[in-house]
Amino acid sequence: MKNIFRRAAAFLVITALVFTAQLWLPFSQNVHAAAFGVWPTESRFKNITTYFDGSRNVNDVSGYHNGIDIEADGGSSIFAAYGGKVISADWKDGYGYMVILYHSDLGVYTFYAHASQLLVSAGAAVNQGDIIAQVGSTGNSSGNHLHFGICDTLQAGWPARTYYDPLSYFTYSDNAGGGTTVAPPTTTAEPECSCTDDCAGAYTTKGVVTYLNIRAGHNTTSAVIGEIPAGAEFTVTKGNGEWAHVEYNGKKGYASMAYMQLKSELKSGMTIAGATSPSGTISKGSAFSIKGVITSNFKITKVYGGVYFRGGEVTSQYAEAVPNAVKYDLSSYFDRNIVFNALNDGDYTYKITAEDEKGGKFELVKSDFIIGKGSGTAAETAVAGDINADKKLDISDVVILQDHLLNKSEGFTKEQYEASDLNKDGNVDVFDLVAIKKAVIKAAE
């Protein structure tokens, strides 16, 4: 009887171990022999600014990083790390322009995000080392870099868990074809960042004789990517009391807070560089390109604006974005969603406003401009809603507009279209029909 119990107990222990292993394996980063891949950016770019966070396999939310970010020049080449099939090459919101490849012999997908230009199309077969895109800063991005990830599942065309650490999944070679090993910086993967902006501000070094190292991660085993000279002033955006996110002389990384002292607290501040703004008189139907890169001391929580009527009311050409980053490029979203050639003749104001996580609010761009002849056009001085041009507003104008919206008329002339756009939003629709009915009733009274 004792032997029977012992065998039963042994069976239960083995079963429990197997079950535990099955639970653990999907989240392990060393459950396979590393495959041979090529480094996905040009070999001169090896600086990794953000590392893979295994917590993403427990909570598949964007707060946990599902790949690695490789700092690289905008327009530089992105290579297929492994041969496979292009599943998609298109816009993916926060990922910006992204290529997803499927590697059937590995059973995984690789994805390459924030590209400035896509050089392949869905369905194409690519070889290892083929150029598939160019580095950019599209989507939710604070600067030019490649977000490179590996996963074994797609949900509705988007990467989904399980994710794998690209630094341990592949052993990399030079993508230039030389066959030499490209060694990513020696470091440990970053844990979930617990830093806050409570200690943000301007700092100087403390007890440093030569220089303070800027590292690629929150630990002394991370690669040294820069130096802060003794006595130099630098910026801390956030920290946890032991390590801080630092910026010095264009270099961003991490440094030990044991060797720094606060000089002044960081205040809300925001600037815009390379901004374009319409001015003067613009011909009706002309296009205008929106540009400008916003830089903030704290994360930008909201950017909004576009074209307003001169009186302050917003037109239909308006957009909002939630970058949640310290940098934001207006051309990545606003330029595609605000269409100047849809505006009618009139007087307008172009305005862009941004807010940060500290409650700071900044009007970054504001300029007045005119489309066509502005508010002095015949359409503006005539009776609003007088579609049949009989110098009065009555039920016949309502009937004409109603027939137009029901496609019962042959179409409007330019003058009729402008006369029908009572709310001046650039469109003739049911809202204008409601407005003209109210106007007719008011005129009759």
Structural classification: alpha+beta
How many strand segments? 26
Q: Ranges with pLDDT <50 over ≥5 residues?
A: 8-33, 185-191, 376-381
Computed Rg? 29 Å
What can you tell me about this protein's structure?
The protein has helices spanning 2-24, 166-169, 334-337, 378-381, 395-405, 414-420, 430-444; strands spanning 35-38, 48-50, 67-71, 77-79, 84-91, 97-103, 108-118, 125-126, 131-135, 145-155, 158-164, 170-173, 201-205, 211-215, 224-229, 233-239, 243-248, 251-256, 260-265, 270-273, 280-282, 293-309, 314-321, 325-329, 346-356, 361-371. It has 445 residues and is α+β, with helices and mostly antiparallel strands. The protein has four domains: 32-173, Distorted Sandwich (Glucose Permease (Domain IIA)), CATH 2.70.70.10; 197-265, SH3 type barrels, CATH 2.30.30; 270-374, Immunoglobulin-like, CATH 2.60.40; 381-444, Type 1 dockerin domain. The strands form five sheets. Strands 2, 3, 4, 5, 6, 7, 8, 9, 10 and 11 form a ten-stranded antiparallel beta sheet that branches. The longest helix is centred in the N-terminal third of the chain and has 23 residues, at 2-24. The protein is globular. It starts with a helix and ends with a helix. Residues 8-33, 185-191 and 376-381 have low confidence and may be disordered.
Give a quick set of tags describing it.
SH3 type barrels, 15% helix, seven-stranded mixed β-sheet, Glucose Permease (Domain IIA), 445 residues, alpha+beta
